[in-house]
């Protein structure tokens, strides 16, 4: 049975995409200490003009570095390089036609831990709506069938071959049924059977009125002849745009005839690679042809009723992102458990050995218990914040690739929530093992309070790790920056110096230190229960008489529950905001096609 995925009727042969005087440059490189650019910009696209009609199935060919990818990305409105000129769809700026154009990049980016079906279900839910809806379900299964992915639905994406990944990438893009599809080398890496399969699907799309534009590298004769039109590029210029026959006539008119049985695409590319004269002749020839189309009056009345992208509501986006992450993490559960056992159980045992029998009721024990409280607090904070530090390292290109599919804030929040199990398991394990060795008053109640407090304090610690990760991910210097930021926050914990002795100008830093709030709370929980600290008669230094004295010496506050609760909420929001801004900046930089 033939699947009818593209139910729109072909429409009249009208110009949809118009490109006028498009120039794109490489960015100027400036050093931060000099105003003068260290490297001046060079032209990538040089005054490209043209127009593309409804139903066109166009092949962009040209030598390497001709500017094909840059041209495609500009057509999709996703070029982030400095540019001039315009690209319009139905006489409207391409950037204002969200959802009309989809681009399939040369290099696919997926979450490799998911199976093919899980990936497609996630994308269907995000891009077109619930998979329970029969139409959406039919579209999903139709594409699986059309791209011969049925045999691989349970295969992890990371285990697919290069060609299969390419097919999956195309199927994912077609879920939203875009009006204009741009593919950067869709057949590269595919065997001839699959290359023809892909081209046949794309051609079918074009026959239903959509525009399909593909850059193709060394296409075979069979493949090349499937395209309805050819765009030939060299040195950043569009040398020719027209049908295959028109292309061959144009070459003949400048004295170049493609030999019989010779691959025409290869012939055209060679002709413009070797000779500047040929390039100039073709530029001259094409200028007259292109100006006709470009100067046609615009027809804003022809704005097509293309599928506007849907955006699931924010909570649904967070839910779906969490679902995807949980699927990916589920497969790493063994590694996660080993990590937990090594990190927490081993740490707890070391603490048991070092602090065995410590009690805050003796002068010696005061120092030991201060150290113990600091160590369990910092172990949890460091443990969770450093595990969050590399959360975006592998995901940032996926996040950029999926820009527009979900909101940046939903992504950040889902990433924060994905750490919640760790924030619960870590403190429970650490407290339940390590406190067995020390003398806690009201053991069960105090250990429970420690656990709850450490769980609460680990949330801002994760927000801190994620915030820093989002701010510094692309620079690759996060490992150097983090210890520098940690230091003042650590000092503010009160574990190493008396907070009341700090100069007033440095004092506000303590309000953004999660170490401070955690130490303030845990110290209050413990020391408030110590009514008497023994002071031996031969003691030469001043004795601290009770837990309140210890708190006073450290500079911790009395109304700790209120202040520390507000503090935890405040710093969580503070780091989330910085993290969100960091991700937004990454999103703006755009995906590297
Ligand atoms: N962001 C960028 N910064 C600097 N130079 C760039 C950038 N993007 C593209 N270029 C340069 O512009 C030229 C055209 O690149 P583009 O990728 O568009 O060519 P292409 O025709 O697609 O090449 P290929 O067929 O090899 O993929 C290349 O010389 C490339 O190095």
Task: Describe the overall structure.
There is one protein chain. The chain starts with 14 loop residues before the first strand and ends with a helix. Residues 6-12 have low confidence and may be disordered. It has helices spanning 68-75, 116-127, 134-146, 162-174, 192-207, 221-224, 244-253, 264-274, 276-294, 314-330, 333-355, 363-388, 396-401, 408-417, 420-434, 443-472, 478-491, 514-527, 547-554, 560-589, and strands at residues 15-25, 29-30, 37-39, 43-53, 57-61, 83-89, 92-93, 101-104, 180-184, 211-215, 229-234, 237-242. It is of the alpha/beta class and 593 residues long. The longest helix is centred in the C-terminal third of the chain and has 30 residues, at 443-472. The protein contains 20 helices and twelve strands. The chain folds into two domains: 15-31 and 38-100 and 178-299, P-loop containing nucleotide triphosphate hydrolases (Rossmann fold); 332-589, no CATH class. Adenosine-5'-triphosphate (ATP) binds next to helix 1.
Write a compact overview of the structure shown:
The protein is 50% helix and 11% strand.
Characteristics of this structure?
four-stranded antiparallel sheet, binds adenosine-5'-triphosphate, six-stranded mixed sheet, alpha/beta, 593 residues, single chain, Rossmann fold, 2 domains
Give the secondary structure arrangement, pairings included.
Elements: E1 15-25, E2 29-30, E3 37-39, E4 43-53, E5 57-61, H1 68-75, E6 83-89, E7 92-93, E8 101-104, H2 116-127, H3 134-146, H4 162-174, E9 180-184, H5 192-207, E10 211-215, H6 221-224, E11 229-234, E12 237-242, H7 244-253, H8 264-274, H9 276-294, H10 314-330, H11 333-355, H12 363-388, H13 396-401, H14 408-417, H15 420-434, H16 443-472, H17 478-491, H18 514-527, H19 547-554, H20 560-589
Parallel strand pairs: 5-10, 5-11, 8-9, 9-10
Antiparallel strand pairs: 1-4, 1-6, 2-3, 6-7, 11-12
Helix pairs in contact: 2-10, 3-4, 10-14, 11-12, 11-15, 12-15, 12-16, 12-18, 14-20, 15-16, 16-18, 16-20, 18-19, 18-20
The structure holds adenosine-5'-triphosphate.
Transmembrane segments: 337-359, 371-392, 424-444, 450-472, 560-583
Domain ABC transporter: 17-260
Subcellular location: Membrane
């Amino acid at each position: 049975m033939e699947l009818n995925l593209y139910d729109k009727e072909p429409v009249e042969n009208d110009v949809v995409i118009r490109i006028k005087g498009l120039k794109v440059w490489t960015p100027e490189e400036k050093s931060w200490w000099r105003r003068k650019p260290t490297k001046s910009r060079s032209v990538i696209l040089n005054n490209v003009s043209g127009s593309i009609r409804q139903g066109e199935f166009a092949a962009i060919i040209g030598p390497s570095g001709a500017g094909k990818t840059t041209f495609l990305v500009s057509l999709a409105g996703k070029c982030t390089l400095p540019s001039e000129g315009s690209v319009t769809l139905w006489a409207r700026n391409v950037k204002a036609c969200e959802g009309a154009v989809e681009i399939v990049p040369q290099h696919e980016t997926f979450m490799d831990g998911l199976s093919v079906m899980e990936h497609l279900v996630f994308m269907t839910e995000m891009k077109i709506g619930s998979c329970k809806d029969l139409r959406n379900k039919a579209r999903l299964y139709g594409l699986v069938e059309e791209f011969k992915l049925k045999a691989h639905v349970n295969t992890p994406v990371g285990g697919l071959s290069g060609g299969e990944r390419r097919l999956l990438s195309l199927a994912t893009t077609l879920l939203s049924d875009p009006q204009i599809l741009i593919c950067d080398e869709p057949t590269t890496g595919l065997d001839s059977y699959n290359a023809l399969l892909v081209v046949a699907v794309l051609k079918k799309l074009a026959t239903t009125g959509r525009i399909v534009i593909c850059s193709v590298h060394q296409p075979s004769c069979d493949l090349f002849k499937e395209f309805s039109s050819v765009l030939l590029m060299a040195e950043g210029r569009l040398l020719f745009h027209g049908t295959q026959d028109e292309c061959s006539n144009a070459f003949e008119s400048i004295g170049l005839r493609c030999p019989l049985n010779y691959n025409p695409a290869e012939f055209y590319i060679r002709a413009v690679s070797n000779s500047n004269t040929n390039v100039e002749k073709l530029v001259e020839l094409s200028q007259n042809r292109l100006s006709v189309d470009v100067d046609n009056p615009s027809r804003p009345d022809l704005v097509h009723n293309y599928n506007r992208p849907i955006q699931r509501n924010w909570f649904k986006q967070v839910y779906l992102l969490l679902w995807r992450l949980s699927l990916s993490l589920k497969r790493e559960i063994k590694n996660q458990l080993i990590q937990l056992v090594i990190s927490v159980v081993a740490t707890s045992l070391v603490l048991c050995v070092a602090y065995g029998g410590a009690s805050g009721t003796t002068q010696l024990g005061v120092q030991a218990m201060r150290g113990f409280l600091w160590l369990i607090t910092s172990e949890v904070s460091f443990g969770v914040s450093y595990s969050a530090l590399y959360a975006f390292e592998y995901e940032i290109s996926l996040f950029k690739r999926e820009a527009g599919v979900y909101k940046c804030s939903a992504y950040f929040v889902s990433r924060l929530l994905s750490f919640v199990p760790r924030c619960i398991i870590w403190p429970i394990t650490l407290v339940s093992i390590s406190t067995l060795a020390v003398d806690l008053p009201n053991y069960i109640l105090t250990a429970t309070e420690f656990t709850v407090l450490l769980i609460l304090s680990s949330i801002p610690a994760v927000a801190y790790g994620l915030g820093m990760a989002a701010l510094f991910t692309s620079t690759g210097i996060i490992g150097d920056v983090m210890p520098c930021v940690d230091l003042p926050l650590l000092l503010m914990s009160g574990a190493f110096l008396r907070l009341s002795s700090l100069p007033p100008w440095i004092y506000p830093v303590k309000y953004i230190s999660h170490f401070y709030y955690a130490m303030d709370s845990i110290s209050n929980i413990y020391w408030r229960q110590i009514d008497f600290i023994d002071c031996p008669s031969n003691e030469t230094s001043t004795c601290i008489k009770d837990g309140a004295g210890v708190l006073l010496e450290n500079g911790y506050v009395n109304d700790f529950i209120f202040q520390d609760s507000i503090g935890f909420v405040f710093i969580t929001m503070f780091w989330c905001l910085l993290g969100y801004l960091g991700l937004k900046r990454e999103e703006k930089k755009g995906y590297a096609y």
